[in-house]
Every structure is written in C-alpha cells, then in structure tokens.
Amino acid sequence: MEPASDGTAGSSPLLIVVSELDPVARAVSAHWGTPESTGDHVDGVPIRALRPDVLVLRRPGLHIHDEELDRRLPSGLTVRHPTLVFPSIHRSERSVPCLTVHPLGNVGPEAEIGGRPRTLAPTDPLRMADALRRLGESGVRIGWSATYEATHHGPALGVPAMFVEIGFGELAEPPSEAVRSLAQVIPELSSDPKDRVALAIGGGHYAPHFTDLAVKRRWAFGHLLSRHALSELDAETARSAFEQTPGAEGWVSARAEDAGHVALRGVGMRLRDNEASRRGESAPTTGASGT
After folding, report:
1. Model confidence pTM above 0.85
2. Residue 171: what pLDDT?
3. How many CB atoms lie within 10 A of CB 231?
4. CATH T-level assignment (fold) for domain 14-191+203-215
5. 197 CB-near residues (< 8 Å, 6+ apart)
6. Nearest 5°: CA angle at 256, between 215 and 200?
7. Domain limits of the chain?
8. In sequence order, which residues have a C-beta less than 8 Å from that of residue 235 and are 6 or more positions away?
9. What is the distance of C-alpha 143 from the center of its chain?
10. In angstroms, rounded to a whole number, what is the distance separating the alpha carbons of residues 251 and 186?
11. What would the pLDDT profile of 101-127 be if each residue is shown by its tens digit?
C-alpha cells in the first residue's frame, strides 16, 4: 500500500465506538485488550486510549440506535472534532462474506435502521478511502473483497462517522482473519491530502464503480447516494449530502442518467472519473466539467 502523506498525528482523533451487542465490535475490541483510561467518561464508561489519538469507547446498546452520541462526549474531545468509527456486523440478503465501509444517514423519508428521515451525518472522506484501500489489501490475503456501501442507516450524529463492517453470512461468528484485519486497519486510518474529494451519485448499493475509482485513482468519496436512493432524493437532502462531504469539489456519477437528477441542480459541479490521477501518478491538470 502507498504510504499516506499524513497520519492521524496532528489531525482529528479517532473514537472507536464498540457496541456490546455487536459480535464484530466485541471480537475486534478483544484484540486490543483493555487500554488505559484517559480520565474522561461517557455515561460512566471510561474512554480509553489505544494510542494518543486513537480512543475506544464501549457502549451497552446497539450502535445504529445510539442517536446523538456526539452530544454525550466530553467537551475536551468534542473541540478536537473526532471522527467516530463503528466496527460492525454486515448483514445482507445474499450473505456474501465481505468487508465494507460506509457513511451514515437516511436519504429518504424512512428511518427503519436508526437515524432520522432525510438526515445525513458528516463524513470523513479521506479516512473512509484509506479504510477501503487498507481493507482491500488485507482482504486479498484472506480471499475477501472490500467495498464501499451507499449511505443508508443511522445513528444520527453531528460529527464525522463511518461504519467498518464484516459480513460473514451464515457463520456462527466473524472469522478470525477478518476480525484481525479490522483490528489492525482501524487504528491506522489516516488522511492523504493528495486525494480529491467528491460526492458519489448513482450506482448500486455496494457502489462498485466508486469502490474501483477510490482504489485505482485518487478519489475519496463522502456520501454515496445509490441509484435506489435517487428515487427519493430531494434538493435539500442533496445539498446536505454535499455539505456533509467536507472538502468536496463536486460530484461524480456512476452513469450519465444519474447525472441528470433534478435535485443536483446547483449542488457543486459534475466531475469526471479521470479528473483524479491514478494512484502513484501526478495529479492531472484537468478542471471540473461543470453541470
């Protein structure tokens, strides 16, 4: 993997949120043991320091319903603008073993899996891209693929957050190799300022187009609005998705039909796939294509 240009040192801290009810979160956390307490607490539970800027907080409930957790954090941590990372089980109809990364929120008028209708949490596009790339490389070693997922569930939060997941189908527990991968990758997450940030528009729920772009090129995506979500997208939520993708220069679409959505009018500029350099190459000189 290419070395990141800047690490977590000097940037916002990571707060890893471990749901006691989630089998992946419990298994990943077990790899870290019981780090030393920072002296801060949330609802009586200590925040622990895996590293100076990598913190761990255990929560008794289910993460998708841990609404506004950021409001419970100590002020000394809040002012440092932490990114929350939720290790989690991934469930799907096909039960295909996989590793996934996705932002939080609900695009449409329903909020069946936590969060609030038409409400999107802030994202951390650069560290999401790093998570995807690192998981992809570790997944090769165990024969698993890593992919973005589209924005699709809660909790509702006011700070950047992402879910990093293991889908293990019908197995009784997450495979140790996949658990080890998450335990190694999450504390290492970093931001590479050479990446270009954009909103992702269209494509399938598992976002193969945008996964490929982030792995092969210097694209880092914040919110990913799937083709299914576009059927429910309104102008206000489209603006919110752009605003909650910090550093976004515009948006990239999976296909031309997605680019014509009426809610995107006035929301950034349309960018083309090849406007980000291939990883390992110099940045291209092309500009935004406009709408």
Report:
1. yes
2. 74
3. 10
4. Aminopeptidase (3.40.630)
5. 125, 126, 220, 221, 222, 245, 246, 247, 248, 249
6. 40
7. 14-191+203-215
8. 262, 263, 265, 266, 267
9. 22
10. 27
11. 999 999 999 998 999 999 999 999 999
